[in-house]
Amino acid sequence: MTTLHFSYLLAFTISMTGFALHRIHLISTLLCLEGIMLSMFIALSMWPLQLQTPSLMLTPMLILSFSACEAGTGLSLLVTSSRTHGSDLLQNMNLLQC
């Protein structure tokens, strides 16, 4: 395993453990989700370069656009939840009380 593969795997693993274990604040879960998407984008964009094959780079651009849409949606949810509940704590948000 090269150092490049190890760094992708390490970034993805750290982001996944952060996403699974640190669910106290909404902003921390959104940052971990962005880390997952960024590591996937970098890995998919470097993959054709390592295999030395020509590529149109369609898949990394799709992941990057979905990541931008997810970030916009997540930030709008963060603003809405902080306005309605007063903080971004996930314990305070109960979907059944809407």
From TrEMBL:
Reactions catalysed according to its record: a ubiquinone + NADH + 5 H(+)(in) = a ubiquinol + NAD(+) + 4 H(+)(out)
Keyword Membrane assigned: yes
This protein's UniProt keywords: Electron transport, Membrane, Mitochondrion, Mitochondrion inner membrane, NAD, Respiratory chain, Translocase, Transmembrane, Transmembrane helix, Transport, Ubiquinone
Single GO MF descriptor: oxidoreductase activity, acting on NAD(P)H
Keyword Transmembrane helix tagged: yes
GO biological process, alphabetically ordered: ATP synthesis coupled electron transport
Protein localization: Mitochondrion inner membrane; Mitochondrion membrane
EC number: 7.1.1.2
Gene3D superfamilies attached to this UniProt entry: 1.10.287.3510
Transmembrane portions of the chain: 31-49, 61-80
Topology class, membrane: Multi-pass membrane protein
An annotated GO cellular component: transmembrane transporter complex
Recorded family membership: Belongs to the complex I subunit 4L family.
Job description of the protein: Core subunit of the mitochondrial membrane respiratory chain NADH dehydrogenase (Complex I) which catalyzes electron transfer from NADH through the respiratory chain, using ubiquinone as an electron acceptor. Part of the enzyme membrane arm which is embedded in the lipid bilayer and involved in proton translocation.
The protein's name: NADH-ubiquinone oxidoreductase chain 4L
Annotated organism of origin: Pseudemydura umbrina (Western swamp turtle)
